[in-house]
Amino acid sequence: MGISQDNLRGFILALLSSGFIGASFIIKKKGLRRAAAVSGVRAGYGGYAYLLEPLWWLGMVTMIVGEVANFVAYAFAPAILVTPLGALSIIVSAVLAHFMLKEKLHQLGVLGCVMCISGSVIIVIHAPQESPITSVQDIWAMATQPAFLLYLGSVIVLVVLLILYFAPRCGHTNVLVFTGICSLMGSLSVMSVKALGTALKLTFEGKNQLVYLETWFFMFIVATCVIIQMNYLNKALDTFNTAVVSPIYYVMFTSLTIIASVIMFKDWDGQNTGSIISELCGFIAVLCGTILLNSAKDSDRGSSFRGEHAPLSPTLSTGLFSGNRETLKHDEENELSRDDICLRKQEPY
What we know:
Low-confidence stretches: 298-349
Structural class: mainly alpha
Pfam families: Mg_trans_NIPA
Mean pLDDT: 78
Largest sheet: none
Membrane topology: Multi-pass membrane protein
Main location: membrane
GO cellular component, one term: plasma membrane
Family: Belongs to the NIPA (TC 2.A.7) family.
C-alpha cells in the first residue's frame, strides 16, 4: 500500500519528534537529580528547585522542539499514524538511560526495541488516509458529537479522581497514578493539537481560520492540557525509574489517543477489515515491545514502584503503604544523600 505525501511528511516529522522527546526524558531527569541534590527537596514531593537548573531547561527546550515537530506532524497525518511512532522515543530514552543514567538495558530490552520498530512500520504502511477538512468548524462538529462528548466526560471524571483522591494516597508508590493523569490529558491534548494544527495549516493555505472562536478555544485546551501533563510528568520522572515511566506512559498515552482519534475523527471509516487488523497487529507488537522494555529494567518490583536504585526493606514498604510520613521522610533524606554522592562522583565540575 502506498503512502500519500501528507502521510510521508507526518511520518518524517514524527520520527524527528520522537528522537528529541526521547532525549529530553534523560536530560530532564539528570536536571531533576541535580536540583534535588542541591536543594534537598525532590520534584515528586513538591519541590520546584529544578526551575533554577539549566540542565532541566535544556531538557525542556529539547522536548519543546520535539513537540513542535509532533504538532506539525498531526497537521499532515492522522493521529493513528503519528502517535504510535512515539515508540521511538522509548527506544531513545532506554538507550540513553543505559549509558547516561546507568539504568541497564539487557537483551530482552533490545528485543523490545525491535518489536516497537517493527510494529511502527506496520502501522505506517497501513495508516488510513484522512478525510478532507475544509474548516475548523468541521473539527468542532466532530468534537461535539455525542460519542466524543461521552469520552471527554469520562476522561475529566477520571483525571479529577486521580488528582484529588489517588495522587495524595498512592501517587508516590504506584507508577500508574501520575502516568495515568498524563496519558488521559495527553489524549485530549492530541485531539486539540490536531484541530489547531489543521486550522493553522488551512490558514497558511489562504483560508483564514483565526477568525473563528473555535480555533482559539482549541488553543486554550492545548495550553491547559500541556501544563497539567508537564507537571505530573515531572513528578513521575522524579519518583520512578525512567525505564518504567517511559514505556508505561507510552502504552497508556498511545492507547487512549488512538481510541479518542477513532471516536472523534473516525479514522477507520472507509478502511477495509484487513488494514484495520494490520494496524491493530502493529499496535499490539508495539505494546509487547514496551512491555519487554519494562521487563528488562535492572531492578526488582519494589524499586520499580518506588523509583530508586535499591529494593525496599520490609519496614519501609510497610511504612509507605500505611502512610507513615516520618519513615518516608527519613528514607528520602538517605536517598538524596546517595544521589548527591553519585552526582559528585559521576559528574565532576
